[in-house]
Write a structure and sequence with these properties.
With about 110 residues, the protein is of the alpha/beta class. The chain is about 30% helix and about 20% strand. Strands 2-1-3-4-5 form a 5-stranded parallel sheet. Helix 3 links the parallel strand 3 and strand 4. The longest helix is centred in the middle third of the chain and has 10 residues. The chain is globular.
Length: about 110
């Protein structure tokens, strides 16, 4: 799968996604795009999954008919995210176009 990391997504997750191709919004030159525009250009570029920390995205955008899936991390602090890597990888592996999955990251 082609996975796009939104701004705020811990880039260190990339190491756990070795069976996927991972790019960041920054690497693509899209770091200043707002959600609707980011989704559109990501779809046009062939991305399968957007990994983001923006929990408001599903309330701001209609994701149902999208060509990509969205996986949301409830927190972005690496020390909290790191133990949840297996769940994050599983959510990305299971992602289907037009779906939105949230991975809850405990506060401690």
């Amino acid at each position: 799968m082609l996975v796009l990391f939104d701004q705020g997504t811990p880039v260190a997750i990339r190491g756990a996604l070795q069976t996927h191709t991972v790019r960041t919004a920054y690497e693509e030159g899209w770091s200043m795009l707002l959600n609707g525009e980011l989704l559109r250009v990501a779809e046009e570029a062939g991305f399968d999954v957007l990994l983001t920390t923006d929990a408001n995205l599903p309330y701001q955008q209609n994701l149902k008919n999208r060509k990509l899936a969205v996986v949301i991390l409830s927190r972005s602090k690496w020390s909290l995210v790191r133990p949840m890597i297996p769940r994050i990888v599983a959510a990305i592996d299971a992602a289907k176009p037009g779906t939105c999955t949230q991975v809850d990251i405990p506060a401690h």
